[in-house]
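S., here's the first fold you wanted:
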Amino acid sequence: MALKDGLVKLKAFAAAWWFPVLVGILSGANLFLLVMSAPLVILYCSAVLANPKRWLYTAIANAVGTVLGCLILVILMEERGIDFIKESFPSTFTSKWWSWSEGMMQAYGPVAAIPISAMPIILHPLIFFAKLSKMSDFVLLTAILIGRIVKYSIMAQMALTAPHLLKFFGASQEVIQAVKKTKAN
């Protein structure tokens, strides 16, 4: 109940023009924290629902924030070596998405970067294998930007029209119910 009430209050705050930018920055920071996925779904959906006409702006702001986080990660990998990602984020190395991303990158090369980026998964494996295969930073970050704009656009439309489908983005039933309540208000 508290989550639903908090989300309704958040919706009013989320109507500010800068709120999607803040959520984007937090999405970029989440590349290093790895613990904010569920709260970010709530914040992102709040931004979309607070002003449905700006759903594309919200998607782009979130994608740009994510790409900025990816850029910082790429710079750190270039300074500290490619194994920096394995050493700093060992849990990502053991995730099922690590081997899946590796297989996609081996099979399809740089072309796989956009669809992988559009998936509701962590980006660390993609960045690791892109750097390992010597993909240029520009191509990698552009692919991530395109893929994440697609991902967040789909997410925005789900929040607006079919919140129950947010489960595919890791949203719990409680979060989905809160989004539905916010949408109704």
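And the second, which I think is the more interesting of the pair:
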Amino acid sequence: MSNSSVIHQLTEVMLMSRNESWPEDEVIGPLSVNRNKILKPGTEYVNKSLSKNNQLNMSVGMNGSDVELDHGEGWMLGTVDLVVVVVYFVGSLGLGLWYGRKHRSDPVDYFLAGRSSSWQLVASSIYASNISSTQLVGMAGSAYTQGIAVYMYEWMASPVLVVMAYVVLPGLIRSQVFTLPELLQLMYCPAARYYFSAINIVINIVMQTAGSLYAGALLLQVLLPNWALWHIMLALGSLAAFYTVLGGLTAVMVTDAVQAVLLLVGSIIMTVAAVMKAGGWNAVVAAQPPGHFSMIRPLGEPSVPWLGLPGVFLLGVYFFAINQFMAQRMLSVRCVEHGQWAAMLTAVLKLLGLFIIVVPGLAARILYPNLSHGDLVYPTLMFDLLPTGLRGLVLSGFLAALMSMLDSTMNGCATLFTMDFIRPAFPNMTQGTLLKVGQVTTVVVMVGAVAWAPQIRHFPMLFQYLQQVLAYTVAPVLALYIVGFFWQGGTPTAAMVTIAIGTIAGLAFFLAIEVFQVLNFHFLYVPSILLVLSIMILVIGSLLDPRHKKVDHLQKRPALWSLKEFREETKALKKKPLWQNYRLQSVVVLILTFAILIAFW
């Protein structure tokens, strides 16, 4: 699940503007607004009460950067909780810096961890970076309101990662590139590289980094009522930037590994506590409305209709295979085998989302049947069910998810800017200078994200649209990669025409569906249509391009996947123990994947 709906919903819940014509205690959407609260002139006001007990009871006043919050009795951290959180921060920070101290000598060390990462480290880092704090809140909330259909985004990651291990990773790792956009230059032209790199940087700063900071800070402010929102964001961003700047990708991945363990342990504790409190698994199942336990939804379903599943798959391919801040981990592995093993382990970890993220939201329907907003499920469960100590551990898991997203996007943006723009522009720049550019860029990304994040509350609908645009713009670039992996004949002119026409077509769909609503069409249908269109334009345009016939042009295009290499890999795998054969591992992963689908069809 992306940050878009979560951030928009949190903004809607916590920052709804006051209307002077509202009567006292009028219910406006999910909110009960009481105007008896005295606030300074021009202040926006929201009052939120969930119950008389340990659930959320907040008042949010917005005047500039001032945020005022009232607490329910249970929304407090004990001394043991604080100790656990402090130990987490100090321990993960120290561990990351310790392991990252040797990887600061050159760009390969700093940006790609010396291309020496193990499969366990890569898998845990990908998993921790993928499960952001907004995803923890958003998936539990969506499960509470809509059932397990939201899990399809997690479920689809497993087949995506299997395909990635078979098709993408061998050529990607052998290419020895620093960034995924760099691959587009090898396939087509520098312009394609610069376009996609710039898009990646903007998306990662404006949406991923700033979005995670904003959503995480909104929730943490309940615990830190005396802190302004931007103070919390600055503290979180500075901490993540600190160990990212000093330790590079190695520090990021090592801290991610610790955070992955905390995330899993905390989520398991939350699930067990919620299900037991709700009366057990059978009680949770019995309490769900019809259809809430079905992953496959009918065509009229607004969340994930079955015909939109190919679109979910394509978005997954984009996110795991060509999005820099995720794929950068795969570029850091010590060999192709480790990358393939990492993909298999990540696929298994993603399957756990149903049980450790979605199920608590289902149990909350019994425990808190009258929650006015689903995104309050996760924090309410945390503070209502868990005793002191465990509460701090689960909160550490939440913070771990947030920090993993921040360090990943900061490091990814620094790599893109340094290696895709600075190095080509200044080819004689020393490695030490490139390293410093990357470190400075990390700080700039952090400052930019912190500066932009508070503004999200002023543009909730615009921010939602910016996030949704991703679904309408992925296909053209994805088509370039798919064709480039299997065919060496794509030409630069055809590639840029594909980007231009595909982007215009995606924008037309976006305006027709999301803005003017003249087309009753689910957005998940669009990526498949645009992908077919983009591939046709690229292939036909390349064949018609006179440059396609030039032998020297074709020889410059690397064959990133071929049937010959696949057969050679098959022979090599026969000599290895079965447990080291990623193809056998992939069979096990797919059996587990489709067993879950059948069980919750």
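Why I say that: Residues 1-8, 10-74 have pLDDT under 50 and may be disordered. The longest strand covers residues 57-63.

Talk tomorrow,
H.
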